[in-house]
Amino acid sequence: MNSETFVAMSESNTASIRVNGITYMFAATALLAIMVFGDTGDFQFPLTMGLIGAALYGMLTFDFDMQTATSLRDSMPEEVASSKADEGYSKAPFTIYRLVNAAVLTLIAVAQISVIFQNGQTIQMCCSVKASSQAAKGINPLVSSTSSKLIVAFVTVVEFVSFK
Questions:
Q1: Distance between CA 106 and CA 110 in Å, rounded?
Q2: pLDDT, tens digit, for every residue of 50-59?
Q3: Which of 92, 93, 102, 107 is nearest to 158 (CA)?
Q4: Which of 40, 79, 82, 102 is deepest in the core (most CB within 10 A)?
Q5: Full domain range(s) for residue 18
Q6: What pLDDT digit, counting tens, does each position of 90-143 carry?
Q7: Total domain count, the chain
């Protein structure tokens, strides 16, 4: 492979990573908006399938792009391999990137699904101290489903920022 082809294929793979990441984030954000602003009780199953589909899309497309990057690294032309650009590229831990991506997207999907089906029950267990102090003040100690949805929103925003 000559260096021009290598550079073009690398640019194409980078664009693919960017487009696939943006597509996943739009899907995850749209589902999050439905969870935050809508009543999920009436359509839990379709929403869950959407979450699972978005997570699978994010995992599979990122995994494919990392496989492509690994293949490009292995077929790097000699003139690029002998340059300083190869030092970082050849040391990149693509397997770790793939595992971290799968773990993060799985955790996000599990958190979102737990919000759909448990309607804040998990958050209530974590916030028992806050609930007991609210009960002492005469405030309803139940943590609303809005709190759990906001936590999922925070996790998704943190993932979005770390993705960029």
A1: 6
A2: 999 999 999 9
A3: 107
A4: 40
A5: 3-163
A6: 788 888 999 999 999 999 999 888 888 875 444 444 444 455 555 555 554 444
A7: 1
